[in-house]
Amino acid sequence: MKNLLAILLMVLSWSAYSQNCTQKLNQAEDDYEAGRLLGIPDQISTCILNKSFSTEEEIRARKLLTLVYIFTDQEAQAEQAMINLLKEDPEHRLDPQVDPAELFFLYDQFRTEPIFRISFKGGLNTSYVSQIEEYATNNTLVHDNFYNGSTTDGNDSYQIPGDTTSTDYDALSGRNYNIWAEILFQRKVYEDVDVSAGFQYRMSSYNSDSYVNQLNLNNRVTNSQVYLRMPIQGSYTLWSTNRDRILLPYGFLGGSLDYLVQATASGARAGGTAYNTSTEINLIETNQVNRFNYSLTAGLGVKIRFKTHFFTVEGRYDTGRRNYINGSERYTNQEYTFDIGYVEPALSMNFISVSLGYTMSIYHPKKF
User: Fold this and answer.
1) Predicted TM-score of the model (pTM)
2) Percentage of the chain with pLDDT > 70?
3) Do the bridges between strand 309-320 and strand 146-147 make them parallel or antiparallel, or are there none, so unpaired?
4) Taking 70 as the threshold, does the pLDDT of residue 323 lie above it?
5) Is the pLDDT of residue 341 over 80?
6) Average pLDDT, stretch 161-183?
7) Which has the closest alpha carbon to 303: 252, 359, 355, 352?
8) Residue 71 class from Cβ within 10 Å (0-12 exposed, 13-18 middle, 19+ buried)?
9) Which residue from 208, 194, 94 is spatially nearest to 144, judged by alpha carbons?
10) What is the pLDDT of residues 31-46, one digit of tens each?
């Protein structure tokens, strides 16, 4: 009970002290308007040091100190007061109808834009396979491979030319969706133009189905990857200098260096001498894949302004520029070629991704 009473007394005392500081600030502003400047710093400095003002009052107090030091010809104190004001309100805006020209003159001597921004993004991606060259255990000119539920021509089924039964060969699997996350460090290089670089973690996978040489002999393989990527990109944001706009569309182009941390293939075959056969293969240990790659990226998004920070909604397309498969080891894995009856063609990995993000602006106000 005594502890509760003590806490209550502390809260009431702090509330009374804060109210007293509000009164002091109002009085100091009245003194400024009346031209009584010299006593103002002593009136409000203690309240600033004790953090007794609300955020709005803190900004008013620091701006008032800046004005007082300007008009009492205390240049060093005015500059420090401006820095303190910009730390409290990094994108503080002056009003030409109210603020004096002397304050504009001092304000223009300071950096008021962020030195860089940190962007956090995360979302979903789905893989698209581009087949570079065909390899298989069967005649792929007759029996097409399905990737994520469709052939390279976009069909989810086909018929064998010359087959009088007109039997449909159908896709056996669909599309997968996986997660990814990214951190980017952004810096403005020109009006509306930013460059950024960072790190990305991406999980991805694609499904491959094929018929070896007849309808009842088929295989299904799910290839899964984990990538660490180093994206570098340039972006253009419409109306980025207009602080009154809430929605800011942007587009970007770039690329990334990609390192394959994990790659597995889970396969199953139906038909043949052993009717059901399944296995999981570590593609890195068996040297079936190339671990280093590079990609090109393009995307569109919108920033939603929240004070000096942003929420983002974004869509992008990544296209791999090297063969994902190590062709020199294509036929060396017997679990693939004999147990599953599958040989991976030469292919590149592409992704369509969507994300939500949050961008923080980092400020360090200083005189130019």
Assistant:
1) 0.85
2) 89
3) unpaired
4) yes
5) no
6) 85
7) 359
8) middle
9) 208
10) 999 999 999 999 999 9
132 or 317: whose pLDDT is higher? Answer: 317
E-assigned strand segments in the chain = 116-133, 146-147, 157-159, 168-170, 178-190, 193-214, 217-237, 247-270, 276-282, 292-306, 309-320, 346-362
Phi, psi of 189 (to 5 degrees): -115, -20
Q: Can you tell me the mean pLDDT for 122-143?
A: 78
C-alpha 228/C-alpha 231 separation (Å) is 10
The CATH code for residues 116-362 is 2.40.160.20
For residue 218, the cross-strand partners are: 211, 270
**Res. 136: pLDDT tops 70:** no
Of 134, 317, 320, 315, the C-alpha closest to 225 is 320
Tokens 């962007």 map to which residue?
119
Measured CA to CA, the distance from residue 55 to residue 44 in angstroms comes to: 14
Query: Strand pairing partners for 297?
Result: 254, 318
Rounded CA gap, 86 and 78, in Å? Answer: 12
- Alpha-helical runs (H) found in 135-199: none
Position 187 confidence tier, pLDDT thresholds 50, 70, 90 = very high
Domain residue limits, the chain: 2-107, 116-362
- 279, 283, 288, 292 alpha-carbon torsion, rounded to 10°: 160
CA 274 to chain centre: 47
Q: Which two tokens stand for residue 209?
A: 């189905």
